[in-house]
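Section 5: illustrative case.
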């Protein structure tokens, strides 16, 4: 289940980044705006990964969450 959650997060990030790049390429978004959105998406992915690591460690230690 954990790897599945990470796979979904990765797929969403990939889709969102592709959409941002496409909008920038069409001139719908400015390149600097696209860069800021990309940074936010990357930060969100890191937060999701950290949460999953926290859950995995708690499960290994036998701690309820």
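Designed sequence:
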């Amino acid at each position: 289940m954990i790897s599945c959650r990470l796979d979904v997060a990765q797929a969403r990030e990939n889709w969102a980044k592709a959409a941002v790049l496409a909008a920038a390429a069409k001139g719908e978004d400015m390149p600097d705006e696209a860069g800021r959105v990309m940074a936010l998406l990357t930060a969100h992915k890191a937060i999701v990964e950290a949460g999953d690591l926290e859950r995995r460690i708690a499960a290994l230690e036998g701690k309820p969450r």
